[in-house]
Amino acid sequence: MTFDAPTIDYAGLSPIIALTAGLVVIVLAAVFDRVKRFGPGLALLTYAVTAGCLIWQWNADLDLVSGALRIDGLAVTLSLLAVIAAAVSVLLAIGDPSETQAGRSDWLALLTGSLLGMVILAQATSMLTFFVGLELLSIPLYALCGTNLRRRESLESGLKYLIVGSVGSATLLYGLAMIYGASGATGFQAIADGLQAGDGMLSDSLTLVGVGLVAVGLAFKVSIAPFHQWTPDVYQGAPTPVTAFMAVATKAAAFAVFIRFFLVALGPLADQWDVMLAALAALSIVVGNVGALAQTSLKRMLGYSGIAQAGYMLAGIVTATQAGVDALVFYLSAYVAMNVAAFAVVVIRERQTGFSDDISTLRGLGREKPLLAWPLTIAMLALAGLPPTAGFIGKLYLIEALIDDDWTWLAVMIAIGTMISLGYYLRVVAALWMSPAGEAEGDAAIDTASLPPQIAGAQADPFEDPGADRRWYLVAPALIAMAAALFFGVIPQPLVDFAQHAGDALSVWVP
After folding, report:
1. Are 288 and 304 in contact (CB under 8 A)?
2. Are the C-beta atoms of residues 297 and 235 closer than 8 Å to each other?
3. Which end of the chain is more exposed for a tag (fewer CB within 10 A), N or C?
4. Is the pLDDT of residue 113 over 80?
5. How far is Cα 389 from Cα 338, in angstroms, rounded to an integer?
6. pLDDT value of position 510
7. Which H or E element spans position 38?
8. Residue 274: CB partners within 8 Å, gap ≥ 6?
9. pTM for the whole structure
10. What's the CA gap between 201 and 182, in Å, rounded?
11. DSSP state of 442
12. Mean local confidence (pLDDT), 428-440
């Protein structure tokens, strides 16, 4: 008997190796007082090296570690989006109480660990790496949501996310077990082959229930209604740099595996699951947009907005075509710019107003601080899908892909959702430019006397920073994201090529 070690392509694995090495360095930096102050620099250097490795593998198209992972256009493009979101979150977290109270190196290590899970998830082509990547993504996020130890809402959001996320993971794992039982395989392509080879397995109840449970598990992760209940509370309660990371990067990684699993592993079952996903997309569009209308918290409103946006993106998978995948990746890329611009402004205003995210704190901001008002204005217009922004072009591509594949009714749902969304996006714009200046009460804080001594005595930065709008590391992400949202709305071709690079990776399996 001979043992053959699996062939390992270290160039293909270089993004994962870079992130893992950087994570180790960040953790070790906590031991040395003189080094841990450079934690953000170490994290940004790690992400820059990871992005360089991803770009180095831009044209790669190969299996890694005996088919457990795959580096291709889909993995590279969506991993890059997650890396960008992580880098922005590091900048937004500088000086944030959550980073100080949790420990800078610990906070950055949790963020980097979650990003590592996202990169693994984007490359996963086996149910084993699929689940490992998903849990590596999720568990650090549970802790990050509760890192602002002096805010009741932060601790509550971490607990809620942990409970609901655990239910979603258990549901997903149960569905994967059923699909394994039906196909006898764990690799995505092997699952498709096993289902086609099995006598009647394409319509067997074991297979269909498994598909449903996997869809539910992933719906929990990307905030698709009716499995969205955790989203508004967690978005509002979590530290805003964490919310920004969670809103963008989690969707990028989860939709990467959503695309790969449903279009490759479950491709032979497309006629069985497309209606189910279409119904979830339509429901998510309605629930997200209607729920956002009554919100006074900007972060909570963006949470409901994220539910609706997830419905738009899910519509790209419903088509089960390369055009749908291209439109989804384009819209997801634009979504990164929209949300970075919005959350960067939220971070600045929270620090200036004593950590209040009420929409009323934005009154008169257009006249007082136009440098902050314009990024948030463009972000709202882009999320609403108005020209000349990348959000408009993204929705146009999604609608075109749906109509070409005879999903006209779902395209109409996107148009209706867009009209409803104007009611709350334009309300924010009106507060910025058409309302007199005003102030809202700050969020309730925990009485430090009721906290354990090690927490109550933790050294924290001041809760108010009137000069936050002069911090380049807070303002620069907002301005760059605003410029990107406008640039790709006027000249979309570079982003179209970026999205098509992801879709081309699936050309073997998807028409």
Report:
1. yes
2. no
3. N
4. yes
5. 9
6. 64
7. none
8. 318, 320
9. 0.91
10. 7
11. P
12. 75
